[in-house]
């Protein structure tokens, strides 16, 4: 499998607090990788370092090399907007723009100077399994959709830009079981085209959808591998304790 | 286990809070009643469409109305762009260091400075140093300075209420920081910003002290509305009719009429703010 996204000797600290310690990890192309671990272990921090979301925090210090294929994501001559176009992101809480459903998809296309006619919008919404539910209400404010629909709209918004990677930060944590299943179906379907890295607290979810799983603890990667191996034959005692619910 | 069964104390607590509220409302109603009952009789179409005549004992108050409208307009044109941009800088761009904190504290303090001080400052800066003379533009700019701290503070509060997740949403699809602010943050904060702006302007429109030295005239005969000349304004006209006129008793109805018009203008501006907030709330949900 070809490596799509990777981190080498990655250290991140906020002020005096070191959050990630010497992380070496890589994500294979067109696979789903789950990042699991107890709260505060640095999964989200790792995820957000790939699309440079930490640029917003003035006290974040990032050391190490992050790559999208051969591209150094923190190289000085690489525009951050280009990186975020190629590495899309879906957040924990659905955060549609306070605009219409149509505009929510069109906005990202517009600012990236991509075509944003109705066909493109429709295709993105279809890909996110949302088109049939909203095709008659495209002018409606997106905030009127249900939580699950809003999250699928956010996925459609990311997909519309034709990214190479989609980062997902606990996309189902605020959703009910039915909406969660729908999104999991969607994620599995998106794997055909995109490389997906997903942070999750839900062990079952990781087992249902992820090809590979990375277990993190206190800012370090403790174990990584094929999902069924991690869950059935964990090598690390910490991993075993965590997936069996002894802490977390 | 002991339960709090003292009913009397809860009645006293409730009664105290209710009676203070009623006392406040009582004074408010007395003020409004005083102005409306004594001013309503002089209110007519002639009153607001005719210029003052015969030593201001006859005629209407068109000249001060025009003056106040133009004055507020100049204030708005100056204070809104500067105030909003300043708030955007402070909330979205400035790092949280001692300089930013000092600037923010200075702005908060400025909003507590008595308006007469602004008047003196306007006299020194706009009228004398910049040679605008006592004029509509000098008074408008002075009122603009007075309004700036309020507009900055209310705009910053409105921007603070926009959750970071909204900004991240725009950044994550490849928007620059400026695009994020222009296309997503500002539209989301618009109702709060406009409410603050309108309330600030309605306060500025009723100010007297800052325009006293900078351009408000006792009386203007003939045409008005020139930016480089003195003007009449409703609050100053009221002050003058009530205390400075040679036949105070004769002009008393006009004074009350002016007060009523001023209250109505301010009320209408507040109503606008209320409507804006209502409209945006409806759009958001």
Automatic annotation (TrEMBL), chain A:
<keyword id="KW-0592">Phosphate transport</keyword>
<feature type="domain" description="ABC transporter">
    <location>
        <begin position="5"/>
        <end position="243"/>
    </location>
</feature>
<keyword id="KW-0547">Nucleotide-binding</keyword>
<dbReference type="GO" id="GO:0016887">
    <property type="term" value="F:ATP hydrolysis activity"/>
</dbReference>
<dbReference type="GO" id="GO:0005524">
    <property type="term" value="F:ATP binding"/>
</dbReference>
<dbReference type="GO" id="GO:0005315">
    <property type="term" value="F:phosphate transmembrane transporter activity"/>
</dbReference>
<keyword id="KW-0813">Transport</keyword>
<dbReference type="InterPro" id="IPR005670">
    <property type="entry name" value="PstB-like"/>
</dbReference>
<dbReference type="GO" id="GO:0016020">
    <property type="term" value="C:membrane"/>
</dbReference>
<dbReference type="InterPro" id="IPR017871">
    <property type="entry name" value="ABC_transporter-like_CS"/>
</dbReference>
<keyword id="KW-0067">ATP-binding</keyword>
<dbReference type="Pfam" id="PF00005">
    <property type="entry name" value="ABC_tran"/>
</dbReference>
<dbReference type="InterPro" id="IPR003439">
    <property type="entry name" value="ABC_transporter-like_ATP-bd"/>
</dbReference>
<dbReference type="GO" id="GO:0035435">
    <property type="term" value="P:phosphate ion transmembrane transport"/>
</dbReference>
<dbReference type="InterPro" id="IPR003593">
    <property type="entry name" value="AAA+_ATPase"/>
</dbReference>
<dbReference type="InterPro" id="IPR027417">
    <property type="entry name" value="P-loop_NTPase"/>
</dbReference>
<protein>
    <submittedName>
        <fullName>Phosphate transport system ATP-binding protein</fullName>
    </submittedName>
</protein>
From TrEMBL, chain B:
<protein>
    <recommendedName>
        <fullName>Phosphate transport system permease protein PstA</fullName>
    </recommendedName>
</protein>
<keyword id="KW-0472">Membrane</keyword>
<feature type="transmembrane region" description="Helical">
    <location>
        <begin position="136"/>
        <end position="153"/>
    </location>
</feature>
<dbReference type="InterPro" id="IPR000515">
    <property type="entry name" value="MetI-like"/>
</dbReference>
<dbReference type="InterPro" id="IPR035906">
    <property type="entry name" value="MetI-like_sf"/>
</dbReference>
<feature type="domain" description="ABC transmembrane type-1">
    <location>
        <begin position="65"/>
        <end position="273"/>
    </location>
</feature>
<keyword id="KW-0813">Transport</keyword>
<keyword id="KW-1133">Transmembrane helix</keyword>
<dbReference type="Pfam" id="PF00528">
    <property type="entry name" value="BPD_transp_1"/>
</dbReference>
<dbReference type="GO" id="GO:0005315">
    <property type="term" value="F:phosphate transmembrane transporter activity"/>
</dbReference>
<feature type="transmembrane region" description="Helical">
    <location>
        <begin position="254"/>
        <end position="276"/>
    </location>
</feature>
<dbReference type="GO" id="GO:0005886">
    <property type="term" value="C:plasma membrane"/>
</dbReference>
<dbReference type="GO" id="GO:0035435">
    <property type="term" value="P:phosphate ion transmembrane transport"/>
</dbReference>
<keyword id="KW-1003">Cell membrane</keyword>
<feature type="transmembrane region" description="Helical">
    <location>
        <begin position="61"/>
        <end position="90"/>
    </location>
</feature>
<dbReference type="InterPro" id="IPR005672">
    <property type="entry name" value="Phosphate_PstA"/>
</dbReference>
<keyword id="KW-0812">Transmembrane</keyword>
<comment type="similarity">
    <text>Belongs to the binding-protein-dependent transport system permease family. CysTW subfamily.</text>
</comment>
<feature type="transmembrane region" description="Helical">
    <location>
        <begin position="110"/>
        <end position="130"/>
    </location>
</feature>
<feature type="transmembrane region" description="Helical">
    <location>
        <begin position="12"/>
        <end position="36"/>
    </location>
</feature>
């Amino acid at each position: 499998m070809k490596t799509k996204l990777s981190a080498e000797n990655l250290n991140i600290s906020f002020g005096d607090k070191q959050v990630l310690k010497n992380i070496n990890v890589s994500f294979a192309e067109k696979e789903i990788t789950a990042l699991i671990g107890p709260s505060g272990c640095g999964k989200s921090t790792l995820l957000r370092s790939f699309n440079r979301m930490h640029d917003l925090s003035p006290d974040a210090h990032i050391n190490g090399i992050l790559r999208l294929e051969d591209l150094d994501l923190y190289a000085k001559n690489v525009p951050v907007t280009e990186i975020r176009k190629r590495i899309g992101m879906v957040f924990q809480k659905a955060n549609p723009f306070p605009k219409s459903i149509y505009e929510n998809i069109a906005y990202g296309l517009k600012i990236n100077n991509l075509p944003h006619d109705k066909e493109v919008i429709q295709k993105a919404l279809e890909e996110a399994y949302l088109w049939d539910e909203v095709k008659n209400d495209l002018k409606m404010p997106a905030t009127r959709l249900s939580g699950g629909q809003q999250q699928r709209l956010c996925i459609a918004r990311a997909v519309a830009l034709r990214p190479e990677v989609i980062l997902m930060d606990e996309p189902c944590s605020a959703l009910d079981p039915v909406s969660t299943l729908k999104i999991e179906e969607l994620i599995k379907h998106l794997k055909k085209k995109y490389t997906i890295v997903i942070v999750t607290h839900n062990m079952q979810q990781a087992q249902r959808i992820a090809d590979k799983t990375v277990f993190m603890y206190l800012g370090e990667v403790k174990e990584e591998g094929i999902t069924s191996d991690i869950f059935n034959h964990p090598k690390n005692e910490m991993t075993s304790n965590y997936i069996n619910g002894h802490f977390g | 286990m002991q339960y709090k069964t003292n009913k009397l104390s809860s009645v006293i607590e409730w009664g105290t809070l209710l009676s203070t509220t009623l006392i406040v409302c009582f004074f408010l109603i007395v003020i409004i009643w005083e102005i409306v009952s004594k001013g309503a009789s002089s209110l007519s179409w002639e009153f607001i469409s005719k210029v003052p005549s015969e030593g201001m004992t006859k005629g209407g108050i068109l000249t001060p109305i025009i003056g106040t409208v133009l004055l507020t307009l100049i204030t708005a044109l100056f204070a809104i762009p500067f105030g909003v941009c300043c708030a955007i800088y402070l909330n979205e761009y400035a790092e949280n260091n001692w300089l930013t904190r000092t600037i923010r504290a200075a702005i908060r303090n400025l909003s507590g400075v008595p308006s007469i001080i602004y008047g003196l400052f306007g006299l020194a800066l706009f009228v004398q140093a910049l040679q605008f003379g006592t004029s509509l533009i000098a008074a408008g700019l002075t009122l603009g300075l007075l309004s700036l701290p309020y507009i900055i503070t209310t705009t910053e509060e409105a921007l603070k209420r926009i959750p970071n997740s909204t900004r991240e949403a725009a950044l994550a699809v490849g928007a620059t920081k400026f695009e994020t602010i222009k296309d997503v943050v500002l539209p989301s904060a618009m109702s709060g910003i406009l409410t603050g702006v309108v309330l600030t302007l309605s306060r500025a429109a009723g100010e007297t002290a800052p325009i006293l030295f900078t351009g408000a005239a006792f009386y203007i005969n003939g045409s008005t509305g020139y930016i480089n000349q003195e003007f009449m304004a409703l609050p100053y006209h009221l002050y003058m009719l009530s205390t400075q006129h040679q036949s105070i008793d004769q002009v008393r109805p006009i004074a009350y009429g002016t007060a009523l018009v001023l209250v109505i203008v301010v009320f209408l501006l507040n109503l606008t703010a209320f409507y804006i907030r209502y409209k945006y709330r409806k759009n958001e949900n």
